[in-house]
Amino acid sequence: MHIWTSHRWQKYYDNINYRQGLRLICDKNIDPEVRRSCKEFCKWLRQEYFFPIRIPVYLKEKRAIRANDGELVSATIFLPFQRSDEPYIRVAVGDYMELLGMWGKDNALGAILCSIAHELTHYYQWVNNIQLTDIGKERQAKRYAIFIIDEYKDTRDHP
Question: Which end of the chain is more exposed for a tag (fewer CB within 10 A), N or C?
Answer without folding.
Answer: N
